[in-house]
Amino acid sequence: MVPMIDLKKQFAGIKDEVLAVVTEILESAHYVLGPKVSEFEKKVAAYHDVAEAIGVASGTDALHLAVKALDIGAGDEVITTPFTFFATVESVIYTGAVPVFVDIDPETMNIDPAQIEAKITERTKAIIPVHIFGHPADMDAIMAIAGKHRLQVIEDCAQSFGADIRGKKTGSFGAAGCFSFYPSKNLGAFGDGGLVTLRDAGLGDRIRILRNHGSRGAYQHQSIGFNSRLDELQAGILLVKFRRIDAFNSMRRENAALYNAALADRIRKPIERKGVKHVYHQYTIRSAKRETIKNRLNEAGISSVVYYPIPLHLQEALRFLGYKNGDFPAAEEAAEKVLSLPMYPELEKKTIREIAEIINNV
Ligand SMILES: Cc1ncc(COP(=O)(O)O)c(C=O)c1O
Questions:
Q1: pLDDT in tens, 67-98
Q2: Of 13, 54, 240, 337, which is least packed with CB atoms within 10 Å of its CB?
Q3: Is the beta carbon of 83 within 6 A of some atom in ligand 1?
Q4: Domain range holding 268?
């Protein structure tokens, strides 16, 4: 089966370096918040040109701690997109705040800035744009709205490591950028991991305290925090992959260009807005014949996945928010038509041509 992402192939290419760093860490016996975490944080902060980067246990925790550090909680509202992974809104709900959805721009499938202002109330505290599938959300428009209404912006960069707008990286626009290192992400660990980038150093202390039981020094607790640290082993492995992230993203972009050229014009392909660097965490087409395409690919031994079949406003767990079918037509249409195809740096050109041919024939 052609997988969605081939992590075995990726490991084979970095095996010696990974085993060396893992051995070094195991022998050092420094397993939590050691030098590899610090080195990784410094390198990621420099890469994003931000004041700080703080490793945490997952992308979900990165979002949760960022929302909490910004003092958002019960009685507050946070505007976000219904077309994302569930964790985006879980992080808001954990704090007691209420997620408020705004429909997506059908072109990029990111939150539509033109519809945000209508949803702002006196309770609105923040906007969480998600750079879905690796295409940056319209941060110029979002930052302008946030500035006008004095709202915080927390970027969900789980799928966009390395993406930029005119050279400025996602995760460096808002107060905080939240990254996931889940294994299948563009920069993936060998387990769970996450990180918060901070535009200004001000929030750094709060997040460092929150990730470590509300504690600044041993057994002195300034607040109620969490156990949410990036493991030293994961940081060591991430440092190996981080050296290659730009090359990996370039290979993804080449593969996307090849898909674009090989797929017939009648198939709706992902777009890349002017001035934007898409990092193709997913290469997602849209078609009314999705199920047929999926079946044909499956018969040919090729994986494909529907990210996401149910927009968040229609999820059973979020029924209490009171949304109904028809509330966000663009997100609902996307959920009916999207299909993500295999996409990873090592994907072979001939496989891309083969996949395109199967789809063109449907
Ligand atoms: C858009 C988005 N937000 C948040 C997350 C949560 O990240 P994690 O799985 O590391 O908790 C993910 C991925 O899983 C994601 O795709």
A1: 999 999 999 999 999 999 999 999 999 999 99
A2: 13
A3: no
A4: 245-361
